[in-house]
Amino acid sequence: MTKRRGKRLLSASQQSVQLAAIVIRYLLLIDCSEKSKDEEEDKEKKKKEKGEKEKVEKEEEKEEEEDGEGREMVFEKEEKDGEEKKRETSLTVCNIFNSMGPTVLRIVRLVHGSVSSNHWSCRASRFFTFAPSIVLILHEVVMSIERYYSLFEPMSVCSTKAVEKMLAGAWAGGVMLTLGLVSSATIVQVDLGHNLYSTACRQALDTMVMKIIFYVSVIMAFVIPAILMFTIAIKVKRFLKQRRQRVEEGKPEFLDRAYAWRLKDAQMLVSIVLTFLVPYALIFFYGVILLITKVDLDFYFSFSILNISGVLAFSNCISIPLVCLVKNRQFREIAWQMLSCQP
């Protein structure tokens, strides 16, 4: 009995141990599975956190890049504004001299009758008459070249230093060319008929050196700038016409607003150039016709033509702002603010 009971007890104890082992194993398996699940969740959380951190870092990098681009754009805009201010300031000063010089000479002529009593006064009066005009012509050439590059070569726009050098060259070149023009000016007696004589300030091209200096100065001061500006105006006009035709055809790539300011400035430039060239062209062609035909015209007729064309040429300080007001809405707004005393 005891042996059987012992065997039964052993078998029961073995079964209990086996059950306990099974339970322990089951619990261990549960713990292991729970640990693996927790580890997977932790890994997923870490991945999510890393992804969020990477997103935040990328967003910060993008913001920094945008800030950098914005700063570059602001810097470029400030540079462009500085260039425009320098160009406008130089052009304004030139226009003031261009309007004041002939006006003062006309007043002196009305009061005293003549400002050309000798050779040096004749040359001085011509210098102060032509110097601002030639400088203004060279300024228009600089503006034409700059607008040409901004329209057709936007990636090769002139830098600030280049604009400063061109403006300084316009002033220096205008003075040098004017000296070449007035170096041969002298006082000449003019027969008015009926035993009446007068004096006039004219060019005395007696020697070959004087002729070379005078003709080279005329070509560089009037002919080359006129051809250059007229060529740029025609090319810009064709470009505007082609773009308008393509816009009318409904091509969306030609409706980009990035070209709007260039097109408006280019159209205004064409109008300014044409308005600017016509009076000087009248004076130039009149002088060329007289040199070729060698016709001795009546003094009063010649005096009237030269003075009328001179008034038209010197009035560009009024005609050019009028063209800007007609062609540009921003100019009209600024003028209205100035007239209405608005801040």
TrEMBL record:
The keyword Cell membrane applies. GO terms for biological process: G protein-coupled receptor signaling pathway. Signal peptide: none annotated. It holds the Pfam family 7tm_1. It is a multi-pass membrane protein. It comes from the Eukaryota. Residues 35-86 are annotated as: Disordered. This is G-protein coupled receptors family 1 profile domain-containing protein.
